[in-house]
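Project standup — Tuesday

K.O.: blocked on the structure for the chain from last sprint. Re-posting the sequence here as requested.
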Amino acid sequence: MGEIFTFFGIISENHSFLFLTHMFLAAAIAVLMAKYAMANLQLVPKGTQNLMEAYIDGVLQMGTDVMGRSHARKYLPLVATIGLFVGIANLIGIIPGFEAPSANLNMTLTLALSVFVYYNYVGIKTHGVMKYFKHFTGPVWWLAWLMFPVEIVSHFSRIVSLSFRLFGNIKGDDMFLAVILMLVPWVMPLIPFGLLTFGAFLQAFIFMMLTYVYLAGAIIVEDH
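H.V.: unblocked you, prediction finished:
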């Protein structure tokens, strides 16, 4: 969306430059929020510490519902970091003068590939190669010839699901906001801003939930 004004566009209108600067901005905000929340820890939290503790508790509870508390705590740093980064990347696109880096397929595909590689690595590390891939063959041995390729396709489709869901929703939100701002630039955008903010949080939540689900499927392998 190079035709829309951005503050970084004053420096350069190159789309790759705009994407990278907004992505690094989102990452920097996430790091600063975490650092500020831990700068002066108090027994009774307030301000940023209170916000971050509420966020961490929510992510932990989400993971507990999916894979149990012990596993959820183990993978909490990964999932919470992804959620914070994605949430901020989604939200900055709602602010006039900025673009959402998550509206670029380069970012969402990289995140999806990272999650895909990591949960398969964790599954293999936990169970070993043979046992991990054995659960791809299904509950009965005589269906293995059918289930194994289906499971392989299913797992690779998760890359598409994770990346294109986030990319498509945020890109659509950006286009919707651009149209609203061109048509009614003052009062009317207040309602769309609220909806887009909810959508930004929702997409981060879905990404975190799916990451927990995929991790759970990799490490909790039942013997048939």
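K.O.: great, moving the ticket to review. The radius of gyration is 20 Å. The CA atoms of residues 137 and 187 lie 57 Å apart.
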